[in-house]
Amino acid sequence: MVLSPYSFEGRLFNAYDQYMSLIKNPDDWAVFTDGDTLFFHSDFGHLIREYIDSYPDTGMFTCYTNRIGTGSQLYDNKLMEIDSIKYNFLIADHLRRERKGKITQINSPVSGFFMVIKRKTWAEIKNELKLVMKNKRLLGVDYAISNILMQKGFVIRRMDAVLMLHYYRFVEGTSFNRGLT
């Protein structure tokens, strides 16, 4: 299930949790994406499933992107300023061919523009995450999820064959945060 959680009240954890409650089978996975992202390949679900099938013990998957502040997810610093969707697609296509099935373990917090997490894993971290996010709003949910997963011994892996376009305040600048706090 691919979901783009959104909260009118600015409580992103609650939106994640509400959407995750829609998944009844504890062994099913949810794909959370930000609203300003785009998959380059129409069969993205098959790509994700291949990784899930190959690495079922993963706590959370992420992928590469063109724009983000976390270095472990940024494919190349040059992409931060390239606005050509065609150029980004060519990079995504190259990664898909050349890095199919390859992963990189990440040992630091990740941005939540793209997170793939199993329902059962969510259930294991939910209560602790709820406490951490009690007085917080939008920013920080992704880092809290990552930190709790790592503290509990879950592995975070980047799907190295997947590049997702992320607008990430391209025109406004990354310090712009209207509506994000």
Give me some keywords for this one.
single chain, alpha/beta, Spore Coat Polysaccharide Biosynthesis Protein SpsA, Chain A, four-stranded mixed sheet, three-stranded mixed sheet, 5 helices, 20% strand
Number of strands: 7
Rg of Cα set: 16 Å
Share of helix, binned: 25-40%
Overall spatial form: globular
- Going by CATH, the architecture would be Alpha-Beta Complex
Q: DSSP helix count? A: 5
| Estimated share of beta-strand residues | 15-25%
| CATH level 3 topology | Spore Coat Polysaccharide Biosynthesis Protein SpsA, Chain A
Query: Mean pLDDT, nearest integer?
Result: 90
CA distance, first residue to last residue:
27 Å
Number of domains: 1
* Uncertain segments: none
Report what the structure shows:
Helix content is 33%, strand content 20%. The protein is α/β, with parallel strands linked by helices and 181 residues long. The protein has a single domain, classed as Spore Coat Polysaccharide Biosynthesis Protein SpsA, Chain A. Strands 3, 4, 5 and 7 form a four-stranded mixed beta sheet that branches. Strand 1 (2-3), helix 1 (12-20) and strand 2 form a beta-alpha-beta unit. The two termini are 27 Å apart. The model has no long low-confidence stretch (mean pLDDT 90).
What can be said about this structure in brief?
With 181 residues, this protein is an alpha/beta fold. Helix content is 33%, strand content 20%. The protein has a single domain (2-166), classed as Spore Coat Polysaccharide Biosynthesis Protein SpsA, Chain A, CATH 3.90.550.
Secondary-structure map with pairings?
Layout: E1 2-3, H1 12-20, E2 29-33, E3 37-39, H2 44-54, E4 60-65, H3 85-98, E5 103-106, E6 114-118, H4 119-132, H5 141-151, E7 156-166
Parallel strand pairs: 1-2, 4-7
Antiparallel strand pairs: 2-6, 3-7, 5-7
Helix pairs in contact: 1-4, 4-5
